[in-house]
């Protein structure tokens, strides 16, 4: 099964995922929105608020050379710890679910492999959340470290050869 995408010339996707209704869980979405406001990119880069799209994210994987994902990640570290996981080191498995609302990144990556649409390069830039409680505001610890998450993401894009420029206000 192939997905239809509006612009197949786009070769890199920057995707922020997470649920903004669960405090720190929404950090990936908040980060890509900040990146969109602060930077401009080569025309072949698409910035996506992936929110809680689950398997609908597959359409953003197909035909891409590279996908960079920003998300809250349980590294087993103190809140605010940031890290990068790349390619096959990112868990991809199909785990039992109670509902489609529990579909996560590992399920999406598993499906992308199964459908043979996984990009050559996939990178997850994550931050250890403090709270996943209901709430629109991120915790102070995560708010204080979101710029580090953004900086790691921009560095990775530059490493991939993508032209990134800071917007002037």
Number of strands: 7
Mean pLDDT figure: 87
Spatial extent as radius of gyration:
15 Å
The best one-word shape is globular
Structural class: alpha/beta
The largest sheet is: 5 strands, mixed
Number of helices: 4
Order of helices and strands: EHEEEEHEHHE
CATH class: Alpha Beta
Termini separation comes to: 44 Å
Helix content: 10-25%
Can you tell me the CATH architecture? 3-Layer(aba) Sandwich
Report the uncertain regions.
1-8, 97-101
What does this structure look like?
- This protein has 169 residues and is of the alpha/beta class.
- It has a single domain (12-166), classed as Rossmann fold, CATH 3.40.50.
- The protein has four helices and seven strands; from the N terminus they run E-H-E-E-E-E-H-E-H-H-E.
- The strands form two sheets. A five-stranded mixed β-sheet has the order 3-1-4-6-5, covered by helices on one side. A two-stranded antiparallel sheet has the order 2-7.
- Helix 1 (27-38) crosses helix 4.
- The chain is globular, with a radius of gyration of 15 Å.
- The termini are far apart.
- Residues 1-8 and 97-101 have low confidence and may be disordered.
